[in-house]
Each structure stands twice: as structure tokens, then as C-alpha cells.
Design goal:
The chain has 3 domains: 14-257, Rossmann fold (3-Layer(aba) Sandwich), CATH 3.40.50.620; 279-379, Up-down Bundle (Four Helix Bundle (Hemerythrin (Met), subunit A)); 391-456, no CATH class. 45% of the residues lie in helices and 15% in strands. It has helices at residues 37-55, 71-80, 84-101, 117-129, 158-164, 201-213, 227-242, 273-277, 282-290, 302-316, 333-343, 348-363, 369-379, 391-405, 412-424, 428-440; strands at residues 2-5, 10-13, 21-26, 59-64, 133-136, 139-142, 179-184, 197-199, 217-223, 247-253, 256-258, 261-262, 298-299, 443-448, 451-456. A 4-stranded parallel β-sheet has the order 4-3-9-10, with helices on both faces. A hairpin with a 2-residue loop joins strand 5 (133-136) and strand 6.
């Protein structure tokens, strides 16, 4: 299996520190708002890597942190008259719901930054004691120039970074490049050797990865926007504090763009996952993301999502047979092609082509084709099961359709009887209005000789 290491900028054979075991850390969300399509790309990408490593029989310890102490959280808490905990808990729960809706697996360990403050203080203290950091009026800064390898990940030499650094008139740092490990904060802070304060963003991930995975880990992944300064700073502080290599394989996914601009909250051009799921199902969003290589930028458009929806239909509409749980797929040619594609730096586009071929074979009743398709599609996180609706969600859809038709139906059965009567009387206009109303509500009606069935989009 070969992965593109962002640090060396090379495709490298993957060899974990311990045979058959993988330590994997992914930078998680800062929980202060809804997750957007950019987050979906990041977490679906690493969800697929996690699934694939397990599929290849690795014992994976997957850690994805939650940043629940941050300037944005504190600002929102003050604006809303709430505690930071209330804000972070609300948006963490919203994030979890979005991830579940996208069918991403929950990480094995999901630590909160506020639960690891002690580890952050320990690392910061070690850096100060070893001369890699210094305190000024309750703030603690890392001395960037004490770490000769700084800039290796982002391919930016220190002198180039230095020439572009901004110098503030009241800057108390020894050097403009130095970054905060600890920030003075009398209002929301925690007790520390430097007074009340809170951690800088970068130290959080160094502390959580060390606590749960050790000083050196196999894989550290995240979005390309984190390469500098976040991941660059993680490397500097971790390697200076621990005295050893921090990460063996750095992996980064590309941006989602709209009109060639990165999707982000700061630019105001983002689509929340929840809004997107009102128009497209999780399989379609996943297909859209996996059609493109994870390292490349992907341009969002309704046309691209519609094309993805058609691609999903080719797979989901394959003729289904009973899954043979005991069938060994490893001898199948399609399995070998799938593994070859995924071993090529997660070439999901090639892997999807294998699924298309299996769907064609399933439609031709070739033995075990659907079993192989089902198992391989699951590795990419596709689900053949339609999402179940709660009773209240279902009732809302019935009310929506009733309102569109100017009627007062109480059940699905009642509406289908009404529609059958319209069809029997060749009242196609009414029958079509009902079908369209259901489609708008997220339910597809399917007519056949045996009658009308329905399914959730």
C-alpha cells in the first residue's frame, strides 16, 4: 500500500511502526457552528482510509479530537450570554448528527481539548525548561528559530516566512514567527504555572495525539488548509518536547471550491451538511467526494452532484440477491482490482469503476456479484439501506403532502388509496401532483403492476 506523504512530497510504501497496528490522528472540528461540505470532504476521506485499513486487517487506533476551547467559541458564548461549555456541547452534538447522517464511522477515541489541559501544560512547561519557549506577561511562545526543520512540511524556508511576517507595534514576542503555546485569559482560563490562561490551538493536537497514541505516530491527516501553520507548528513543538520524530506519514485532502475559491465560513461561501442533505442523500455526497482523488481540489456545483446521484443509482439499482456472508471475496478478480486501486494512494475513482462493473454483473445474474459489490461498496462507506424516518419525521411528510394537495390525509395508506383511485379514473394530473409532492418531501413513489411502493430518498 502506497500513500503520498506531504512531508516528503513522495509516494511511499506504508509500513506502520508496529506490524499490523496503525496509529492514526485526524484534526477534528472546532465546535462553534454547523459543519459544511468542506468538513464532509475531510471526514469522509479519512473515514474511507479508516475503513480500508480495517478491511486490510490492520488493528487501527483512530483518534479525532474535538476543539472545545477556542477564540470563536468564547466569542459566541459571550455574544449569546452562555458558557463556553453550553456553546461547544450544542455544536458538538450537531456535528455528531451530521457525521452520522453521512455514514462516517465514529473514531475509536474522540478526546475533547478541555479534557487534556494538564497534558498541554506539561508539554509547554517542558518546552520552556528546555529553552524552546518563553513566557511574557502570562503568554508563552515557541521559539521557531530553535527548530531548524521548521517549514519542511509546508515547503517554506524560514527566511521566506520571516520576510512575510507581520510585526505589530505592541508585539511582545522575541521574533514575529514565534507562535503561542499558552494565552493569558483571566475570564475563561485554567490555572497554570504562568497564571490563568488557555492553550494555543496548535498545542492541543500535540497533547492529545501524545496522550492517546504516543510520541511517534503512523498517520496524521487533515485538510490541506492545516498544513501551515497548524501542522507545521505541531511538528515543531512535538519534536522539541518529545525528542523524537512526531509523524511518519502526513496526509492531506484538497479543498472543496465554489467558483474556484476554497469553501470556508470566513468567505461566507459554504454549504452546511444539513442543508445539502435536504437535496442529496449521503451516498450521493460521498460519491461526489470520492469521484475525485482526495489530494485534488474538487469544484462544487449542482451539476456535479446530479452526476454523482446518477452514479450512485447505477450501484444502488444493481439487482440484489441475498448476501452470502461466508463467501470469500479475496479470490475474486474484482477484489484484486479494488485493492490495487486503493493501494495506489487511495485511488477511489478507480475503485468506483470496479463497483460499476460489479453492478453490471449483478444485473446479469452472475454468481456472487452482488455479494462482492455489497462488501466492497461498504469499504467506501456506501450503504444499501435507506435511512429510517422517525414517526414525527414521517408525520411531517404526510402533512406536507396533504397541504400541497389541499387535503387532510392521516396516513400513507390513505394517500396511496386516493392516488390509486385517481389513476384508475385516468386522472393523471392528480396522480402526478401526489408523486411530485412526495418527491419534494423526500419520498419516491414507484408504480408497478403489483401496485405503488415508496422509499425514502
Amino acid at each position: 500500500m502506497k500513500l503520498h506523504n506531504s512531508y516528503t512530497n513522495k509516494l511511499e510504501e506504508f509500513k506502520p511502526l508496529v506490524e499490523n497496528k496503525v496509529s492514526m490522528y485526524v484534526c477534528g472540528p472546532t465546535v462553534y457552528d454547523y459543519a459544511h461540505l468542506g468538513h464532509a470532504r475531510c471526514y469522509i476521506t479519512w473515514d474511507v482510509l479508516y475503513r480500508y485499513l480495517k478491511f486490510r486487517n490492520y488493528d487501527v487506533t483512530y483518534v479525532r479530537n474535538v476543539t472545545d476551547v477556542d477564540d470563536k467559541i468564547l466569542k459566541k458564548a459571550d455574544a449569546e450570554g452562555k458558557t463556553p461549555e453550553e456553546v461547544s456541547n450544542r455544536w458538538y452534538n450537531a456535528f455528531v448528527k451530521s457525521m452520522e447522517a453521512l455514514n462516517t464511522l465514529k473514531p475509536g477515541i474522540e478526546p475533547f481539548a478541555t479534557e487534556t489541559i494538564g497534558e498541554m501544560i506539561d508539554i509547554t512547561r517542558d518546552l520552556v525548561n528546555n529553552g524552546y519557549a518563553y513566557e511574557v506577561n502570562g503568554d508563552v511562545y515557541f521559539r521557531v528559530k530553535k527548530f531548524p526543520q521548521y517549514g519542511m512540511l509546508s515547503k517554506q524556508p524560514v527566511d521566506a516566512l520571516e520576510s512575510g511576517a507581520r510585526v505589530e507595534a505592541n508585539d511582545v514576542k522575541e521574533d514575529p514567527l514565534d507562535f503561542a503555546l499558552w494565552k493569558k485569559d483571566e475570564k475563561h482560563g485554567y490555572q497554570s504555572p504562568w497564571g490563568k490562561g488557555r492553550p494555543g490551538w496548535h498545542i492541543e493536537c500535540s497533547a492529545m495525539s501524545r496522550r492517546y497514541l504516543g510520541k511517534t505516530i503512523d498517520i496524521h491527516a487533515g485538510g490541506a488548509d492545516l498544513i501551515f501553520p497548524h501542522h507545521e507548528n505541531e511538528i515543531a513543538q512535538s519534536e522539541c518536547a518529545n525528542g523524537c520524530k512526531f509523524v511518519n506519514y502526513w496526509l492531506h485532502n484538497g479543498f472543496v471550491t465554489i467558483n474556484k475559491e476554497k469553501m470556508s465560513k470566513s468567505l461566507g461561501n459554504f454549504l452546511t451538511i444539513d442543508n445539502l442533505l435536504e437535496q442529496y442523500d449521503a451516498n450521493t455526497i460521498r460519491f461526489f467526494i470520492l469521484t475525485n482523488h482526495y489530494r485534488m481540489p474538487v469544484e462544487f456545483s449542482d451539476e456535479a452532484l446530479s452526476a454523482a446521484a446518477n452514479g450512485v443509482k447505477r450501484i444502488m439499482n444493481a439487482k440484489r440477491t441475498e448476501i452470502d456472508a461466508n463467501f470469500d471475496i479475496t479470490a475474486a478478480d474484482e477484489y484484486k482490482l479494488f485493492v490495487e486501486a486503493m493501494d495506489e494512494d487511495l485511488n477511489t475513482a478507480k475503485a468506483l469503476a470496479v463497483l460499476f462493473e460489479l453492478a453490471n454483473k449483478a444485473n446479469k445474474d452472475e454468481p456472487h456479484a452482488f455479494t462482492i459489490l455489497y462488501k466492497l461498496a461498504s469499504v467506501l462507506g456506501f450503504t444499501f439501506e435507506k435511512q429510517a424516518l422517525t414517526e414525527e419525521e414521517f408525520s411531517e411528510k404526510i402533512r406536507y403532502v396533504s397541504a400541497k394537495l389541499g387535503e387532510n390525509f392521516s396516513s400513507m395508506e390513505e394517500i396511496l388509496v386516493y392516488r390509486k383511485k385517481a389513476r384508475d379514473e385516468k386522472d393523471w394530473d392528480t396522480a402526478d401532483k401526489i408523486r411530485i409532492a412526495f418527491n419534494e418531501a423526500g419520498i419516491i413513489l414507484k408504480d408497478s403492476k403489483e401496485g405503488t411502493t415508496w422509499e425514502v430518498k
